[in-house]
UniProtKB/TrEMBL annotation:
The keyword Membrane applies. One of its GO terms (biological process) is outer mitochondrial membrane organization. GO terms for cellular component: mitochondrion. The chain crosses the membrane at residues 28-46. It comes from Lachancea mirantina. Keywords: Membrane, Transmembrane, Transmembrane helix. Pfam families: Emr1. This is LAMI_0G14268g1_1.
Amino acid sequence: MVFFLSHIRDVFARSHSRSQEILLSRRAFFRLLGYLASCVLFSLIAQDHV
């Protein structure tokens, strides 16, 4: 499994420049934060209606 993940990482690294990797990583990080924040928000709204 670890070999598979490192192989996927190598393929990704070869297909993108370093600056593109940074931008994609940053975008993914902020999308994750947005998703987590929306989960928390919906959970709080659901608790208020109970």
